[in-house]
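hey m, so remember when u said the tokens were messed up on ur end? i reran from scratch. heres the input so u can diff it against urs
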Amino acid sequence: MTDSLAVRAVRRTPVVAAALLVVALAGCADMAGIGAQAKLRDATSLGIAPDSAAVPVSRLDSQWWLAFGDGQLNTLIDQAVAGNPNLQIAQARLTRAQASADIAGAALKPKVNAELDLNRQKFNSNYIYPAPLGGSIQNIGLLQLGASWELDFFGKNRTALDTAIGAANATAADADAARVLLASNVARSYFQWARLNDQLTVAKRTLAQRDETLKLVRDRVSAGLDTRLELRQSEGGLPEARQQIEALNEQIALQQHALDALVGQPNVSQSLKPPLLGEVKPIALQANIPADLLGRRADIAAARWRVEAASSDVANAKTLFYPNVNLTAFVGFQSLGFGKLLKSGSEQWGVGPAISLPIFEGGKLRANLRGKSADLDVAIESYNATVIDAVRDAADQVTSAQSIARQQAEQRAAQTAAEAPTTLPCSATARAWATTSMC
């Protein structure tokens, strides 16, 4: 038997022959030596504790600022999230990315279209049209319904959809990061305003004390107990105290302007009661930041999704080496003369596969794959850099918080020592001269 059953089946079925040819040619795709080189950093390599059991879920609340217990701050952040232009831009970018994902997803579904074409045409008498059609002017009508479906055998459309979904998720994480950053900046400006208000209170108290001291020195000079030098020294302290008050007032005004800009409402801070640090509830921080908690940062999530999108993009670039298989079909009417368009005999239909395979692209496909692999390397290293920066930032915040707690303890100790009674016995001569600074 010279012919096998498979060969005879191929001869009888051209479609099967075409499919076998496609599979055979698909094996010729050459992607050797191309791939990403970068590696994702893990928690161990960054010295992060992997255990997250000690972190309560409530600590991960997206509205973390509520823990400060300040109603004015809560209102400001709500207004900022609702009206900040940069946040609206981030939301618009998210909407665009989601639309791109929907477009990519549409490629996985069949497409159906309708066509109505009515033309009046003169046929060329020196071409293929015989008389009496050649040289005549005729009406041509076409009414047709067509459908097509790309059979995604090698995952080209699926990987394109995964790429678009990864990009959309990264954009969503960017929007979350922008929201967190905005809330953080509003809280930071609000507490900076409160700190300046406390400093202004101290500066005003200092000015009042120096004014009282100046009155006392004047009385002592009048009584002959002090010289003009002490009077000039006391007078010199007043301009310095007033200058400090003026500088603090300027900083407060600038801080209020910054807060107004973040909220997106001019002069909104003018209607608020000046905040005080003593009225803010402190939030305790963990001594160590576990990997699970750190990984929930929006900037890290965005970088991770970009890695996923870039990985899918590499997979999509590989599918371009393989054939495209489309199944097309049409049914409708076509005729010479509009009156015959819907009559019997004008019907037409067709169905069949359409297969295309890149054979020689001048290195275009390999270059595209190298570029996508390089993009994946960039995404991975960007993720690693983001994680390293996040670890440093978290460590800085924990260190600063612990240092501030120690400084506060030392300041309380110094205040207690300063307020303790330190009355010293005065000599008769000192009491006679009323030199209170000696007692």
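this time it looks ok to me. The mean pLDDT is 82. if urs says something different then somethings off w ur setup not the seq
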